[in-house]
Design brief:
163 residues; elongated; 6 helices; mainly alpha
Length: 163
């Protein structure tokens, strides 16, 4: 299973790079927009919409990476009181539940995109599918990370907070 963990590591680095570039682009874009607005009383049509699109993708990618690192929000007070064997099964159950929720969101997102994806955004004139596809991307990545964590958890190689 080392190949799975290596693939996860490579994917995480790539996704972190993409998210970092998106954040950098948002920062540069916002600084430019603020400078244009308050110094030159000008703006760029569609720039706010584009910054929002970048933010949505950053969130989708970042939440999946957080899932893979077990940095997501969780309350493990009761699970922390369990012994190692039961805790492993509780962790596995939680991962299956999170993967199932993401699976439902993934499935529903395709129907949502089919209905509204062709609508045009006002400022950029791009179809809404450009933004909406971030949902299936984020859900698919989260499912992948849940699968990897489930395998390592059941093998006893990791637990909550493990690196």
């Amino acid at each position: 299973m080392k190949y799975l963990e290596k693939a996860e590591s490579i994917l995480t680095r790539v996704l972190e790079g993409i998210a970092s570039l998106c954040l950098l682009a948002i920062l540069v874009l916002i600084v430019i927009l603020v400078t244009l607005r308050y110094v030159f009383n000008e703006g760029i049509v569609g720039a706010n919409e584009f910054a929002t699109i970048l933010f949505v993708y950053t969130t989708a990618i970042g939440s999946a990476v957080a899932m893979g690192r077990r940095e997501h929000i969780s309350v493990d007070y009761l699970v922390g009181k369990l012994g190692p064997g039961l805790r492993r099964w509780a962790d596995a159950g939680a991962l299956v539940l999170v993967a199932a929720i993401n699976g439902v969101l993934l499935w529903q997102s395709f129907q949502w995109i089919a209905v509204t994806g062709s609508y045009i955004m006002a400022a950029t004139l791009l179809p809404r599918v450009v933004v909406q596809v971030s949902v299936p991307i984020g859900c698919s990545l989260a499912i992948f990370y849940c699968f990897v964590r489930l395998v390592t958890t059941l093998r006893g190689e990791s637990g909550p907070g493990a690196d």
